[in-house]
Amino acid sequence: MTERPTPKRLLFLINDAWFFVTHILPLARAAVAAGYDTHAALPFQAAALDTADALEAIRATGAQLHDLPLQRAGYGPA
């Protein structure tokens, strides 16, 4: 019995959801379409309406989302 190859994984780490939408979204779509197990780790900050819209746009690509507590001005996790 032959084993099926594990799909390649791709993780995007980003500190701003809208930046992902405006600059990375086409790349995420292409990665999902190419069969990559695609993930995006970014701060959700769900209270902001624009962030909620951006998260939904990222989800629509088929990428799995992960909440990562980062601040835009910082150098590491919040």
Global outline = elongated
Which runs of at least 5 residues are low in confidence (pLDDT < 50)?
none
Main sheet specs = 3 strands, parallel
C-alpha-based Rg, rounded: 14 Å
By helix and strand content, what is the structural category? alpha/beta
Compact overview of the structure:
The protein is of the alpha/beta class and 78 residues long.
What does the secondary structure layout of this molecule look like, with pairings?
Layout: E1 9-13, H1 17-33, E2 37-42, H2 49-59, E3 64-67
Parallel strand pairs: 1-2, 2-3
Tell me what the structure shows.
It contains 2 helices and 3 strands. It is of the alpha/beta class and 78 residues long. It is elongated, with a radius of gyration of 14 Å. The protein has helices spanning 17-33, 49-59; strands spanning 9-13, 37-42, 64-67. Helix 1 packs parallel to helix 2. The chain has a 3-stranded parallel sheet with strand order 1-2-3, covered by helices on one side. The longest helix is centred in the N-terminal third of the chain and has 17 residues, at 17-33.
